[in-house]
């Protein structure tokens, strides 16, 4: 993470919850990093986490007595669970184990740390840390998706070699990255006052009333970007093809089916947009004729004539008062080369390029990685879940957008 991303946490009250994973040994360093950014840090240790980190070490770096799992009359007479819950500007759980995430998801209040999480009105940020198989387990993924929907922010996990010797996603983010990521939680204003339109999902090009041409786009990435843009303070219009997703809270969602409908919906409202992010996998072609009645299988051979759909993004970028335009390039090979060609051909400010076709990134999967390409820079956003990636992408887009305004 670049230094310029690190904003001060001066006077921010960070309540750090430590759950019982091996990565807990890194938390004294995390407290130090948070304190370096100006935060006032208090620590709650969950049951069993003392086996991985010494309370005295955390007390020494935070400068305050550590709260532990017990809720005794004595501890409640000091700073009790409600006082702690009220004190915090943000509650950061690092490491957040699979078990802790499951309990958080259930709303358990069975020890001090879980109770504070239920009792606080402060935003919750969690840094997951677990074995890669546990991270990829469907139950964990479902719990994480539920927490994200409730507004819990995720930092990580990272991918790489794990304490158990396995390699894969699940490793806790490095303390300096968690501290920098947390400081971004307080920058809700990077897109305040900005109108952003996002296209998402596939389009459906009808052949007859029951059949059509479409693609595998799930809409996950576009919806995650819409949510991240709302969190960053933008007024967001989401123009979506058919998906199984619920529109993120705070967005104005326009549902469409075909590329022509998406084109019309975008053009109807593009004048008041500052930023246009085209994430939709728009069908390049549609059937020349849409049969009004179901096609019967009478003929031995049928051919379908296809005609070009409008290129929505290229058309928006050509407008006399074009918004700041961000395109997506999903490629199976020569990713950067094709992305650069799209940047030039469509006259875009940014292209977010990702590699599709493998099993691990791209359509329909939870994790993704992006190379963000401008005319004079390439920023690599490493593989992470689509919500974390969307937030990182919005931070980058906001910076490029502001820089382009400053150059006007
Ligand atoms: N796009 C669009 N309207 C279209 C086609 C694409 O707005 N009719 C947008 C997509 O949302 C995406 C970008 O353009 O942001 C993709 O660029 P494009 O070159 O059209 O991608 P492909 O259709 O994949 O092109 P090709 O098949 O030539 O690689």
Output the keywords:
Rossmann fold, five-stranded parallel sheet, 408 residues, eight-stranded mixed sheet, elongated, 2 domains, binds cytidine-5'-triphosphate, alpha/beta
Protein architecture, described:
- The chain has 408 residues and is an alpha/beta fold.
- The protein has 2 domains: 8-186, Flavin prenyltransferase-like (Rossmann fold); 195-406, CoaB-like (Rossmann fold, 3-Layer(aba) Sandwich), CATH 3.40.50.
- The chain is built from 14 helices and 19 strands.
- It has helices spanning 27-36, 55-62, 73-77, 81-87, 98-106, 112-119, 132-136, 138-149, 175-185, 220-231, 259-269, 312-317, 335-345, 386-406; strands at 13-18, 40-45, 90-96, 124-128, 153-154, 158-161, 167-171, 195-200, 205-206, 212-213, 235-240, 251-255, 275-278, 285-287, 306-308, 324-331, 350-355, 367-373, 378-385.
- Strands 12-11-8-13-16-17-18-19 form an 8-stranded mixed sheet, with helices on both faces.
- β18 (367-373) and β19 form a beta hairpin.
- α1 (27-36) packs across α9.
- The longest helix is centred in the last third of the chain and has 21 residues, at 386-406.
- The chain starts with 12 loop residues before the first strand and ends with a helix.
- It binds cytidine-5'-triphosphate.
- Cytidine-5'-triphosphate is lined by residues 199, 259, 278, 280, 282, 284, 309, 311-313, 327-329, 342.
- Residues 199, 259, 278, 280, 282, 284, 309, 311-313, 327-329, 342 line the site of cytidine-5'-triphosphate (CTP).
């Amino acid at each position: 993470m670049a230094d310029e991303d690190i904003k001060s946490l001066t006077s921010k009250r960070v309540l750090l919850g430590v759950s019982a994973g091996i990565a807990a040994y890194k938390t004294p360093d995390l407290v130090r990093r948070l304190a370096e950014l100006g935060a006032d840090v208090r620590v709650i240790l969950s049951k069993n986490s003392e086996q991985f980190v010494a309370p005295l070490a955390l007390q020494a770096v935070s400068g305050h007595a550590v709260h532990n799992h017990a809720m005794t009359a004595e501890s409640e007479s000091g700073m009790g669970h409600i006082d702690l819950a009220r004190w915090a500007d943000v509650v950061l759980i690092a490491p957040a184990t699979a078990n802790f995430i499951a309990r958080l998801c259930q709303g358990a209040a069975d020890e001090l740390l879980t109770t504070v999480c239920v009792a606080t009105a402060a935003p919750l940020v969690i840094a997951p840390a677990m074995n890669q198989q546990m991270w990829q387990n469907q139950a964990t993924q479902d719990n994480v998706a539920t927490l994200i929907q409730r507004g819990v922010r995720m930092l990580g996990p990272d991918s790489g070699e794990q304490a158990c010797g396995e390699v894969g996603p699940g490793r806790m983010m490095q303390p300096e990255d968690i501290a920098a990521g947390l400081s971004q939680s307080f920058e809700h204003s990077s897109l305040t006052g900005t109108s952003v339109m996002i296209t998402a999902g596939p389009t459906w090009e009808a052949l007859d009333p029951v059949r059509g041409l479409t693609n595998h786009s799930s809409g996950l990435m576009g919806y995650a970007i819409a949510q991240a843009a709302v969190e960053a303070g933008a007024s967001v219009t989401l123009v979506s093809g058919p998906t199984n997703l619920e529109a993120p809270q705070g967005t104005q969602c326009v549902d469409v089916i075909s590329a022509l409908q998406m084109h019309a919906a975008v053009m109807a409202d593009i004048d008041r947009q500052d930023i246009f992010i085209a994430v939709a996998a728009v069908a390049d072609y549609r059937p020349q004729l849409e049969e009004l009645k179901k096609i019967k299988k009478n003929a031995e051979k049928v051919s379908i004539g296809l005609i070009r759909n409008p290129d929505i993004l290229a058309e928006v970028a050509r407008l006399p008062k074009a918004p700041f335009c961000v395109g997506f390039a999903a490629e199976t090979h020569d990713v950067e080369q094709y992305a650069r060609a799209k940047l030039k051909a469509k006259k875009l400010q940014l292209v977010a390029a990702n590699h599709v076709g493998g099993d691990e990134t791209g359509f329909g999967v939870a994790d993704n990685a992006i190379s963000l390409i401008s005319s004079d820079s390439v920023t690599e956003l490493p593989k992470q879940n689509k919500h974390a990636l969307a937030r990182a992408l919005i931070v980058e887009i906001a910076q490029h957008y502001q820089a382009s305004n400053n150059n006007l």
